[in-house]
Design brief:
single chain; about 350 residues; alpha/beta; TIM Barrel; two-stranded antiparallel ribbon; binds coproporphyrinogen III
């Protein structure tokens, strides 16, 4: 039996519009916090396939979403390329020795060797494949990666940043080095996603969370073309696996979007009408409720109905326009999911 989520990614008619939430496996769920305590810390949790699989499945049962997203983090890739990673409480991820020059880059492991080190991710996927097949509810498993640009921002700055001044200094004054970093990460990511597919994921999502840091005239050169290169590689070998591109905050780039992928993830700052007008014929659209509407159930209902009326129940996947925040009440997340299913079942 085909999966409703996979069918929707390919633009096929489905009984209702499927829904999932970015960051749906996480700290807003008490059940997640319990497993995380057991794991000791976040990276241990990513490294333990049985516990990572457990938290991946939690939102299926608790909030009734139509797809599970692999529990891991985008930063395991640079970590396995050889960059020491810590998640500091209240501060987020920190790389001890960011890349400053070509010699730093050359010390990092690349290609096949780096992709082969991410065995715990592939083991988690294989376990999830088995568990999901046994459930028999045909919910899809989404695998993911960070876009090379988003990964590079952490590898160059060493941590999250508001200004991106270190990597932008490199962009404008040493673009050759930045391209070399992006190319090396792209090679690893292609093989990493290929192994995720071989281990059992149904769908790929590429997160370019920090796309908006790049001016529109430079976005293709420093990010989008690398994402397209990854998509081309995967599509040439695995055309049956849908690919979702999520560049966050790029309304000014919509006219220039191109590439061989299936779903365009619309972030909350981009009007859905605009995305539909510019891209709706070519790509299925995913999104895009402002995640903070989840703090108020009435505001959630208003947004879900509006998004549904714009998309007309066609070529659409419901989601938030970025990740759910840790202090959202679980009942409000459940309300969002059930409202998406209610409005779209009613009108199909
Ligand atoms: O449910 C899911 O979406 C699956 C798991 C997932 C995580 N990170 C778990 C996580 C996914 C898909 C990611 C992707 C990710 N990680 C992105 C891209 C998506 C986005 O939100 O834009 C980015 C930029 C990261 C990097 C990252 N990881 C940051 C900035 C942080 C700290 C900020 C925060 O939310 O605490 C993380 C840690 C992280 N990744 C947590 C989780 C559940 C929190 C860790 C914890 O304290 O338990």
């Amino acid at each position: 039996m085909s999966k409703i989520f996979v069918d929707a990614c390919f633009g096929k008619e489905t009984p209702y519009t499927p829904v999932w939430m970015m960051r749906q496996a996480g700290r807003y769920l008490p059940e997640y916090m319990e497993v995380r305590r057991r794991a000791g810390n976040f990276l241990n949790l990513c490294h333990a396939p049985d516990m990572a699989a457990e938290v991946t499945i939690q939102p299926l049962d608790i909030v009734n979403v139509d797809a599970a997203i692999l529990f891991s983090d985008i930063l395991v890739v640079p970590n396995e390329m050889g960059m020491k990673l810590d998640f500091v409480n209240g501060e987020g991820p920190v790389f001890e020795s960011p890349i400053k020059n070509e010699a730093d880059l050359d010390t990092l492991i690349g290609g096949v060797e780096a992709a082969a080190k991410l065995t715990y991710v592939y083991d988690t996927i294989a376990l999830l494949r088995k568990q999901l097949d046994e459930r028999g509810d045909n919910k899809a498993l989404i695998g993911f990666t960070g876009a090379p640009w988003t990964l590079a921002t952490y590898m160059i700055e060493g941590h999250g940043t508001k200004t991106y001044n270190v990597c932008k200094k490199m962009m404008y004054s040493n673009s050759k080095l930045l391209h070399k970093i992006l190319a090396k990460v792209t090679e690893v990511v292609k093989l990493y996603m290929e192994k995720q597919i071989q281990s059992g994921i149904d769908v790929v999502q590429i997160f370019d969370s920090w796309a908006a840091a790049i001016e529109p005239d430079k976005y293709d050169e420093f990010s989008w073309r690398y994402m397209v290169e990854i998509a081309d590689y995967l599509k040439s070998k695995y055309p049956h696996i849908p690919i979702i591109m999520f560049p966050k905050g790029v309304p000014a780039f919509l006219d220039k979007v191109y590439g061989n992928f299936d779903v365009f993830g619309v972030d909350w700052s981009t009007p859905m009408e605009l995305a539909r007008e510019k891209l709706g014929d070519k790509y299925v659209l995913q999104g895009n409720m402002e995640p903070c509407r989840l703090y108020c159930q009435e505001e959630t209902t208003i947004a879900v109905e509006k998004i549904h009326s714009i998309m007309g129940g066609k070529r659409h996947i419901f989601n938030l326009g970025h990740g759910i925040l840790p202090d959202v009440p679980v009942a409000n997340a459940q309300h969002f999911v059930s409202e998406c299913q209610r409005v779209s079942k009613k009108n199909h």
